[in-house]
Amino acid sequence: MRERSTTLDLFGAPHLPEGTKYQPDFLVPEEEHALLRHVERLPFSEFEFHGFTGKRRTVSFGWRYDFNGGGLTKTEDMPEVLSELRARAETFAGSASGSFQQILVTEYAPGAGIGWHKDRSVFGDVVGISLLSPCTSGSVEEKNRI
Fold first, then answer.
1. Which pLDDT score is estimated for 137?
2. Whole-angstrom Cα distance, residue 146 to residue 141?
3. How far apart are CA 146 and CA 130, in angstroms?
4. Where are any strands of DSSP class E within 5-142?
5. What is d(CA 111, CA 118) in angstroms, rounded to the nearest whole number?
6. Beta bridge mates, 126
7. pLDDT confidence of residue 89
8. How are beta strands 71-74 and 14-15 bridged, if at all?
């Protein structure tokens, strides 16, 4: 298995896996803070993965993937406040308007990291938007990421 982490060259430019895009400052600070005010009120629950509780909390809209054997299930529609963000993410990824049918919001506790993983293929292209800190590596899998 090939390692998929970001490395820096002599001049500090990130080298990302083929098919990956990165855009710093995708949201201006005012947009980020406004979005965070909405995110803080979402109905998060502990993340469960094959019987273990992860060091994160999540909430899904559109579709939810149950990692304990339940697979993909329909869930609540996306809140209107996330619709513009979804549209911008679709544009960034070069995807058709309305093609992103799922939003997963993940809250990581201070010090909790995210290791390399492969996103479920059922979701196709994936765009990750990091709030409060930049993110150029982690779960990069030959897909579009911010």
1. 52
2. 12
3. 8
4. 7-8, 14-15, 45-49, 52-61, 63-66, 71-74, 103-108
5. 22
6. none
7. 94
8. unpaired
Which are the contacts of 10, defined by CB distance < 8 A and separation ≥ 6?
none
What CATH number has the domain spanning 23-109?
2.60.120.590
- Residue ranges per domain, the chain? 23-109
Residue 11 identity (one-letter amino acid): F
Task: Give the pTM.
Answer: 0.76
CA distance 131 to 115: 18
Task: Specify the amino acid at residue 105.
Answer: V
- Residue 91 structure tokens: 């544009």
Q: What is the pLDDT of residue 144?
A: 37
DSSP E strands in 62-129: the ranges are 63-66, 71-74, 103-108
Please give the structure tokens belonging to residue 36. Answer: 């965070």
**145, two tokens:** 């990421």
Q: What is the pLDDT along the chain (146 residues), one digit of tens a residue?
A: 344 445 544 455 566 777 788 888 899 999 999 999 999 999 999 988 888 888 889 999 999 988 888 888 999 999 998 999 999 999 999 999 999 999 999 998 877 777 666 677 777 788 889 888 777 654 333 333 33
Q: How many CB atoms lie within 10 A of CB 35?
A: 18
